[in-house]
Amino acid sequence: MKYKKQDISRASRLSVAPMMDWTDRHCRYLHRQLSGRALLYTEMVTAPAAIHGDRDRLLGFDPAEHPVALQLGGSDPAELAQATRIGAEYGYDEINLNVGCPSDRVQSGCFGAVLMERPALVAECVAAMRDAATVEITVKCRIGVDDQDPQDILPRFLETVSAVGVTRFTIHARKAWLKGLSPKENREVPPLDYPLVIAMKRAFPHLHLSINGGITNLDQAEALLAEGLDGVMIGRAAYHDPGAILADADRRIFGAEGGRDAFAAVEAMRPYIETHLAAGGRLHSITRHMLGLFAGRPGARGWRRVLSEGAHRPGAGLELLDRALAELGRDVAAPVRAQG
Ligand SMILES: Cc1cc2nc3c(=O)[nH]c(=O)nc-3n(C[C@H](O)[C@H](O)[C@H](O)COP(=O)(O)O)c2cc1C
Questions:
Q1: Which of 5-14, 179-188, 221-230 has the highest mean pLDDT?
Q2: Which CATH number is 311's domain given?
Q3: Hey, which of 27, 142, 236 would you mutate to test ligand 1's pocket, going by the most ligand atoms within 8 Å of its Cβ?
Q4: Domain range for residue 301?
């Protein structure tokens, strides 16, 4: 199903963050089994990779993943425009520009968080992307980099970039230090500044602003939405404990029926896994994203152990999933129902 702009805005009330090596298509398919509503982001794909790389491998996705957004990395307007056209042809519901990722590789190509210093170039990039296709273009950014003063530069960044018609932003509520901190440290060390992001919503009420960074549960997400923010994006917590974040999201964040608990999601994954195995894929490519499904429950360690020890072995199949479920004391034949 193709989503309209207002439906995507609504879906972004709760989104799962773009995460390299993590939010691949198998991960997104799993997350979609838990929440029918949340907006899912791809890993970042650089514009040159989208143009010259193995497109089906980088951009292919299952229709069940909708609503799904493609995140692009780059700083060349013409390349980003071309990559946007390609992404739109693949059927993505949104195309997002990465202005937040601080890794060295990304810096060397002059894109990601370093672009916080060049709002006029970001505006040029998103203007070219908007001209290239009708799909909605959005931006994910930080509150600043290095010695920038976020109070000063963040409003100017939003003003400059929104002037070309981008109205939806996700703000990772901490700075990135481009030198001296690893990408991992850059997600932990610079302090979070939620009040600044909330202030941006008050200053720019016409913009759709989602907040990101350090949100670990739905109580926190609800509290931030109650502050007037339009959306909450969750990264690591959604990956490590998808059952806790996503299974209740449809009900609590979207006020809708639906969503599945972790056991029902495992059952829903079976046909998908079978198809993947039949096409010659490894079980591990899918189950590596399922390790956190039962986090905190009795038997969760056994579930993780059985899957992480066995799933990469050639020939591993659904019987391993059954053995892992048995660690949770689950009668494999027990019926499971969708929630809601
Ligand atoms: C493994 C990993 C990979 C990431 N890759 C990307 C990426 O490709 N693009 C991006 O904008 N942010 C990336 N991020 C940052 C997340 O999108 C998010 O902004 C950050 O983790 C803070 O949110 P959280 O505290 O909810 O995890 C990555 C984070 C992690 C943990």
A1: 221-230
A2: 1.20.120.1460
A3: 236
A4: 262-326
